[in-house]
Design goal:
Two copies of one chain form a homodimer. Chain A has a single domain, classed as ORF SCO4226, nickel-binding ferredoxin-like monomer (Alpha-Beta Plaits, 2-Layer Sandwich), CATH 3.30.70. In chain A, 29% of the residues lie in helices and 35% in strands. In chain A, a hairpin with a 4-residue loop joins strand 2 and strand 3. The two termini of chain A are 17 Å apart. The relative contact order of chain A is 0.33. The model of chain A has no long low-confidence stretch (mean pLDDT 98). At the A-B interface, helix 1, strand 2, strand 3 and strand 5 of A face helix 1, strand 2, strand 3 and strand 5 of B. Strand 2 of chain A pairs antiparallel with strand 5 of chain B, so a sheet runs across the interface.
């Protein structure tokens, strides 16, 4: 398992409720891909959402996000953490 | 106080030790700007570092990063968190 930071663009105006619903949609199916979404942070003005997860691979992260209806624009392995 | 996610580019090949040293340099002076750096995540292959902080403003985050020798390329307020 490894850590990943993914980025969603074009989310301008996202609300707290929409972020919570999107995260809940990921959590509902993440076990099927052995993914664990830990946190998400949104900048509604720039339309950016960052998600931190633990997963077997970037493709597993993307499969969950795609099935939940919000594919990521970038997925980065982040092996280094402080 | 608010939460911020900042992004550093061009950090290709960054090592665990370099990330730890850079973070320590921020921590050493962050109190002077009322900034609290909570985490940093690095993708050495893409050369990306993401830092999560709590601060009075993006300018305070940047002042700490600049004085520590590694100005951020982007600093985003992230008022929404899950």
């Amino acid at each position: 398992m490894a850590k990943f930071m993914d980025v969603h663009r074009g989310m301008t105006g996202i609300t707290e409720e929409q972020l919570r619903e999107a995260h809940a949609a990921d959590l509902a199916i993440q076990d099927e891909e052995q993914v664990s979404f830990e946190h998400a942070w949104a900048d509604p003005e720039a339309g950016l959402v960052y998600c931190l997860s633990e997963a077997p691979g970037a493709d597993a992260v993307q499969r969950v996000h795609e099935r939940a209806g919000h594919p990521a624009d970038e997925i980065h392995p982040v092996p280094l953490t402080v």
